[in-house]
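Entry 14. Ran structure prediction on the chain below.
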Amino acid sequence: MSGAHPTLSAPIPPTGPGGLPSGVGIGLKRAHCEALLADPSLVDFVEIHAENFMSAGGPNLILLDRIAEAWPLSIHGVGLSIGGKERLDREHLQRLRRLIDRTSPASFSEHLAWSSHDGVYFNDLLPVVYDTPTLNRVIANINEAQDFLGVRMLLENPSTYVAFSASSWHEAEFLQQIAQSTGCGLLLDVNNLYVSCHNHDWSAQDWLSHIALDLVGEIHVAGHEAIQDADGQTLLIDSHGDPVGEPVFELLEHVISRGGIRPVLVERDNDIPPLSALLQETDQVRQIIGRAACAAVL
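Output, structure tokens:
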């Protein structure tokens, strides 16, 4: 392990460090677009996946312009391969830059993962070894991306299912060192943290004690599913296809009570339910934020 334990708490900001309002957002799906555009007040911000809006023109970008006009926008990338061993794809960076220039998002985020190698792109976010060579490579990639895109990035903690024997850093300290070295912020995915802690028998409270929560510019919550592995042990999978579980909401409340109110996004990427079901989850998040706000003034 490396690094000292930081001070955890920070003043509650009026907006997150990434520029989003400190409210509740939703991952925008096409099935819900028109209903939400008819009443933008239903959510405080929305998030889109960058790769879904990289077309050169057409109705896709017309819809994007309406979205960017209606809400503060969080652009969430899934294909930059920040943790990869090869240089960042310049064409992908150019497409991202066009998207950022067009929409002026309040936040841009990517994953601590790799997803391409030798010109082949994988439909997955693959884990990295937490060692010093990987740390230096990720720092260089983030510096290049931030310089090229002209924005401060938020880096998301992964959900993981295996641990590498070569890892020599605590995951949270690894993320913190990246943020301190590059000036990027962190996107704390509470569901990913819960999933990883279950799968590796970690303590979420211990994990959080190794990171400065004032680096967090956005928080994600999502659903997961449980499966049985070959040894009959329960493995949690970050499926984004289930409602947010109560343990994830409880961990979210713990994070907010310790680190202050941040923008919180409800994610759902599979088995998309009616909008009303997602709005019930955003209401649960608002209740958590409300309790934290009341506690902060007592």
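Confidence is low (pLDDT under 50) at residues 1-17. Will compare against last week's run tomorrow.
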